[in-house]
Amino acid sequence: DAGITQSPRHKVTETGTPVTLRCHQTENHRYMYWYRQDPGHGLRLIHYSYGVKDTDKGEVSDGYSVSRSKTEDFLLTLESATSSQTSVYFCAIRGTGSPYEQYFGPGTRLTVT
Amino acid sequence: EDQVTQSPEALRLQEGESSSLNCSYTVSGLRGLFWYRQDPGKGPEFLFTLYSAGEEKEKERLKATLTKKESFLHITAPKPEDSATYLCAVQARGGSEKLVFGKGTKLTVNP
Q1: C-beta of residue A108 within 8 angstroms of C-beta of residue A78
Q2: Does the bond joining A99 to the residue before it have cis omega, within 30 degrees of 0?
Q3: What's the whole-number average pLDDT of chain A?
Q4: What's the pLDDT score for residue A92?
Q5: Is B51 close to A42, i.e. CB distance below 8 A?
């Protein structure tokens, strides 16, 4: 258990509404990541953070923004949700191995109607 | 472009029937290859890291091996509780934070 919680765990929202997903970790990890998982695709990196207020884009970042104002929380925002953003979203933290592994949270299932 | 292909997509085994899952990869310099297990409705659970051809890692009934082009996850005498989707991911050298995942192999072990 990497001490990661995600909220909400399930959400249904309408097209065009803003949505914010939260990832919370309790072990002071510097690196945090947001992925999405869709049928027919592997997990894909959306954004990641390497410290408070330090973030960078992943491979599928269009339509998403992130913020990290404190070490323990990493927020993913869909400014105006679309049906193509219906997915399962996973947060992860970087482990301490070499090369370093990633540990994943329980996920948030988001449905955009 | 870095790519990971896993085969087969799905595998059904009888309890005790050993088999292997394959992960073929192309990457511009391998930093690490990772195996995960994912149960329905849950996040991926880390199993192994491999980074050098010839390397092997073991955990209970699972053994992961690595060559320059592919990795195998060998499952010896599986039990029903080994049923899950197994994911393979690679990370390239050069400072990238991205893990490139395959689509997974869904393993079902029947009692």
Answers
A1: no
A2: yes
A3: 95
A4: 97
A5: no
User: Does B51 contact A at CB distance below 8 Å?
Assistant: yes
Nearest chain A Cα distance for residue B37, angstroms: 11
User: Percent of chain A, pLDDT > 90?
Assistant: 88
> How far is Cα A70 from Cα A26, in angstroms, rounded to an integer?
11
- DSSP string covering B11-52: EEEETT--EEEEEEEE-SSEEEEEEEEE-TTS--EEEEEE-S
| Residue A1: predicted pLDDT | 58
Question: What residues in chain A have their Cβ under 8 A from chain B's Cβ atoms?
Answer: 4, 31, 33, 40-45, 48, 50, 56, 58-59, 90, 92, 95, 97, 99-107
Residues in chain B, overall count: 111
Convert the pLDDT of each residue in B6-21 to its tens digit. Answer: 999 999 999 999 999 9
Q: Measure the N-to-C terminal CA separation of chain B; round to a whole number of Å.
A: 41
Helix (H, G, I), strand (E, B) or coil at A84: helix
